[in-house]
Amino acid sequence: MNASNTPVNQPFLYSMKCIMFFIWMWVKLLKGVIYKVYDEGTEIIKSYFIRFWPYYL
Per-residue confidence at 45, pLDDT binned at 50, 70, 90? Predict the structure, then answer.
C-alpha cells in the first residue's frame, strides 16, 4: 500500500511546492511593483497638490 502510494504522492507534492514557489514569486513581484507605483504615484500627487493647492482653497 505504502509503496504504491509514494510514486503518486511524490510528483503531487513536488508540483504543489512548485506552484507555491511560483505564487510566492508572483506575490513578491507584484508587491514590489505596487510599492514602486504607489511611491511614484504619491510623489506625483504631492507635486500636483503642492503646485495646484492654492486653486483648491
Answer: confident
